[in-house]
Amino acid sequence: MTISLETKLVVSSIALLAIVSAVIATATTLLIDDFLIDRLDHQVSSAAHRSMGAAGPEVSFLLVPGQAVETFGARVRQGAVRRAAVLTGVGSVQDVPAPPSVARVTGEPVTINLGPMGDYRMVGARTRDGDVLVTGLPLTSMQTTLTRLVVVEAAVTLAGVALMAIACTLVVRRAVRPLGRLAATATRVSELPLASGDAIRLARVPAADTDARTEVGQVGGALNRMLGHVETAFAVRHESETRLRQFIADASHELRTPLASIVGYAELTERGGEPHGPQTAHALGRIRSEAGRMTTLVEDLLLLARLDAGRPLERVELDLSPIVVNAISDAYATAPRHRWLVSLPDQPALVVGDHDRLHQVVTNLLANARTHTPPGTTVTTTVSLDPDRVSVRVADDGPGIPPELLPHVFGRFARGDGSRSRLAGGSGLGLAIVSAVAEAHEGRVEVSSEPGNTVFTVSLPAR
Ligand SMILES: Nc1ncnc2c1ncn2[C@@H]1O[C@H](COP(=O)(O)OP(=O)(O)O)[C@@H](O)[C@H]1O
Ligand SMILES: [Mg+2]
């Protein structure tokens, strides 16, 4: 069970106060009790002294001057109470029943209960004729004093604890509130998408909570400094990433023109009418195909760099079905020995997006199903509509993606080791582009693969 700091502080200080108050109250009560008994014992002794001075018959000693009303007197002879009485007024006494314990009273003061008259403090003294005169004074007034004291102590303690509880709660709440604000700031920062790599502005702890003279303020100040560092680090990272992206985009862009020239000149030389031997013809063919590969690579790099830079895509409403049909007819033209199957929905598969990029997604998936599988492989492309999503599924019954490649298959330059892939000459950027385009459309791509069943599913939000 977790208890809040506030509750812990309040409860422990109140408990402490309650304990201390109880100890003080008990000690006071005991001391006063002692003091009052002592005083009463003195008074009883004086009363006994007066009685001895007038030790007449029976209980007449009660009638000596100075004896207080309610004074108890008894004459004990041979271990038995002869007569016991209480002084009720000037010159008048009233007989009272006395318990046998009165007969055992000696010079030491003792407390004896006289039934309806309550407790008495008594002391005994022996007369010359061998009787014992027992004199006593009531304890009631002292007991009333003590009871009142205990009641007052309890009331004061309770009131003190209640007051302390309120004051403590207020003070602690005030002290803890800035901590809550620090936590809120930290939580807000922790909810930011820090992994996106973009430059961001982080929330800060309010200036009021960064006073270095308080502990909370020190934490707040440290938190703000840390957030500042994090922000700077992010800005620096973002800056260098942007520069790198820009560099790749520029480099790719710059490479397009010379590459186009190379291809053009190779073609010109091939068809140029000048006779050349088979070796030259072969070399020219290689130059053309390698330059073609490089062009694709450069185009892919440029596209990825632009997608990374968050270059806005075209956003128009379009139907995915014709895109898929076009891509399949291209694929069929390139690889007629594969079996190309397609299944389309009755309604248009409408999404909002960039036509050329989405066309490229389908083309890349179909190109993979073509280049990484042997002739005779069946490739089934399905467009399906869900209430809020449109998905394109490309499945083939080829050899599948190697299990060790599968987790990184959407990574850049991730390629299978098989000689087929090498021969097919892919750059390893095809699926990276598929994934980046899907994400730029707020969609996603998933893959599952085992020998005989490889499935790529791209799903996009429906219009
Ligand atoms: N349909 C598929 N069947 C088998 N392997 C595949 C399939 N699609 C992709 N792969 C594997 O995934 C790798 C990455 O694909 P891709 O990013 O398009 O790069 P590339 O096609 O240029 O090699 C490929 O090299 C291949 O090994
Ligand atoms: Mg590919």
Automatic annotation (TrEMBL):
<feature type="domain" description="Histidine kinase">
    <location>
        <begin position="250"/>
        <end position="463"/>
    </location>
</feature>
<dbReference type="InterPro" id="IPR050428">
    <property type="entry name" value="TCS_sensor_his_kinase"/>
</dbReference>
<dbReference type="InterPro" id="IPR004358">
    <property type="entry name" value="Sig_transdc_His_kin-like_C"/>
</dbReference>
<feature type="transmembrane region" description="Helical">
    <location>
        <begin position="149"/>
        <end position="172"/>
    </location>
</feature>
<keyword id="KW-0418">Kinase</keyword>
<dbReference type="Pfam" id="PF02518">
    <property type="entry name" value="HATPase_c"/>
</dbReference>
<keyword id="KW-0472">Membrane</keyword>
<keyword id="KW-1133">Transmembrane helix</keyword>
<feature type="domain" description="HAMP">
    <location>
        <begin position="173"/>
        <end position="235"/>
    </location>
</feature>
<dbReference type="GO" id="GO:0016301">
    <property type="term" value="F:kinase activity"/>
</dbReference>
<dbReference type="InterPro" id="IPR005467">
    <property type="entry name" value="His_kinase_dom"/>
</dbReference>
<dbReference type="InterPro" id="IPR003661">
    <property type="entry name" value="HisK_dim/P_dom"/>
</dbReference>
<keyword id="KW-0902">Two-component regulatory system</keyword>
<keyword id="KW-0812">Transmembrane</keyword>
<keyword id="KW-0808">Transferase</keyword>
<dbReference type="InterPro" id="IPR003660">
    <property type="entry name" value="HAMP_dom"/>
</dbReference>
<protein>
    <recommendedName>
        <fullName>histidine kinase</fullName>
        <ecNumber>2.7.13.3</ecNumber>
    </recommendedName>
</protein>
<keyword id="KW-0597">Phosphoprotein</keyword>
<dbReference type="Pfam" id="PF00672">
    <property type="entry name" value="HAMP"/>
</dbReference>
<dbReference type="InterPro" id="IPR003594">
    <property type="entry name" value="HATPase_dom"/>
</dbReference>
<dbReference type="InterPro" id="IPR036097">
    <property type="entry name" value="HisK_dim/P_sf"/>
</dbReference>
<dbReference type="Pfam" id="PF00512">
    <property type="entry name" value="HisKA"/>
</dbReference>
<dbReference type="InterPro" id="IPR036890">
    <property type="entry name" value="HATPase_C_sf"/>
</dbReference>
